Amino acid sequence: MKNVLVFLAPGFEEVEAVTPVDYLRRAGCNVILAAVPSKGEACSLAVKGAHGIEISADVVLEDFLKENPDFIPDAVFAPGGMPGSANIAADDLCCRLIKKTFESGNVAAAICAAPVVVFAKTGVLAGKKYTCYPGMEQSLPSFCGSAYPIAVEGSEHVSGVSFVKDGNVLTGVGPGGAEQFALEFVSMLCGPESSSILKKQIVARL
């Protein structure tokens, strides 16, 4: 069974978080919703999204990593939304786990704002093709800070697509592409056949 850790921070985009989580669990993955706090605030299992929808996380990320210090998931996933993506990017535990997972050759996935706000900062996008919410790629210098341009050296933004897979990195464009992004996520972790079966079960759009 594949282990997937999802960063759930206040201000996350609900559709982008729930759709991949739902599809991955349908495909048999062990998906762990890990609560991440707003910077400087206490962390709660109850995390409110960008549109006021509250979801209960499975664990508080800090507590989970204290109990499982050597944990490396088969995939990490950063949903988009603001300030959700910014809260993930500001959390050192999230950034370290993303890097560790990516450098282990496991899947690093992000959608909407998160590829630029989170992944670019961690260096995951360097040398990779990626997509993100339209226009956010123009703000890379402000989100990367002093790490720019090394953090995104050799990267290439792709527009007009729902998702981009490049090696072990999966990025998505936004809420409207969440379904296609989620199906590709399933394919990467569980194989194309599992994704094809799931596509029929959910009556995916043609």
Please explain how this structure is put together.
By secondary structure, this protein is an alpha/beta fold. The chain is built from eight helices and eleven strands. It has one domain: Rossmann fold (3-Layer(aba) Sandwich), CATH 3.40.50.880. Helix content is 36%, strand content 20%. The strands form three sheets. A seven-stranded mixed sheet has the order 5-2-1-6-7-11-10, with helices on both faces. Strands 3-4 form a two-stranded antiparallel sheet. The longest helix has 13 residues, at 14-26. The model has no long low-confidence stretch (mean pLDDT 96).
Name the features:
about 210 residues; alpha/beta; seven-stranded mixed beta sheet; globular
What would a concise description of this structure say?
This protein has helices at about 15-25, 60-65, 85-90, 90-105, 115-120, 140-145, 180-190, 190-200, and strands at about 5-10, 30-35, 45-50, 55, 60, 75-80, 105-110, 130, 155, 165, 170. The protein is an alpha/beta fold and about 210 residues long. It has one domain (about 5-200): Class I glutamine amidotransferase (GATase) domain (Rossmann fold, 3-Layer(aba) Sandwich), CATH 3.40.50.880.
* Cross-sheet strand order for the largest sheet: 5-2-1-6-7-11-10
**The CATH C-level class name:** Alpha Beta
The CATH topology annotation reads as Rossmann fold
C-alpha Rg (nearest Å): 15 Å
